[in-house]
Write a structure and sequence with these properties.
Peripla_BP_I, 11 helices, transcription cis-regulatory region binding, elongated, six-stranded parallel sheet, transcription, single chain, transcription regulation
Amino acid sequence: MADVARLAGVSAQTVSRVSNGYPGVTEETRRQVLAAMKELGYRPNSAARALKRGEFRTIGVITFSLSTTGNVRTLEAIANSAAAEGYAVTLLPVAVPTQDEVRGAFTRLEELAVDAVIVIMEVHLLDAATVQLPPHVQVVVVDSDAGDRYTVVDTDQHGGTRAAVRHLLDLGHRTVWHLAGPEDSFAAQRRTDAWRAALTEAGRELPPPVRGDWSAESGYRAGLELAALEDCTAVFAANDQMALGLLRALHEHGRRVPQDVSVVGFDDIPEASSFLPPLTTLHQDFAEVGRLCVRAVLRKMRQEGPERGTTLVPARLVLRESTAPPPAGR
């Protein structure tokens, strides 16, 4: 820093203000300092800056799966939003969602020097009293039913699902079958509960749900069951990947979509508009979820935000060509 100050003809304090992005430096002086830094190959010492400031400008992210569309796109949104705020992201995947693994993950993140943690939970873990997050760490949780204990950000699974079911019933279908996600998934359970509630409130028959594991292959296997049911004219799939497998199964059984069976998905993945037919689905605003997660965790770090509570991001129904009124007489 002294070498940069000498070359630029300024004080070491001015060099510090420029390298840290502080105001109070004229544009001409800032250019002189930056030019001297470039000429000398100077880079600020991030470790020293962290010790001085008491923060590392890094957010840790714990996730239990990188195989699902929702988790990957949420992680991408968090990383982009954090970068926009000048923070880096340290990712720590956890193979098994247990108390010991969660505790170990927080210990490792503390060793890696992070200022706060975002947990992409997905599975029913924080809902159980057996799992507690360290009280001294600023934490925001994505995709959980633990808003009574933590700060939670999630898509409005309930509202989105109800919109999908109402759309199919309004088209004239007598009931809506459900291709559900895995039982240990919070999001899948929320969507199943909302599907069941919407049909019950409408006074419609409640068919037994069939389950997949979020993959297109599992949607295909479950779809073979649904395709064999002549009275099945409408299906709400818990995600777009399973809807893709369902479309294949229906095609192989000669069930036309949407003339014979209507299909609605959830997520609105980029490929959904290229399905055959283009898929009607619920759009999840992953970018907004990521932005709100980062905003919430930064507010907690600055002691400006609430300790607990849930923020829901609306899911929007996107109408394409996979839904239509049921066949005559059905």
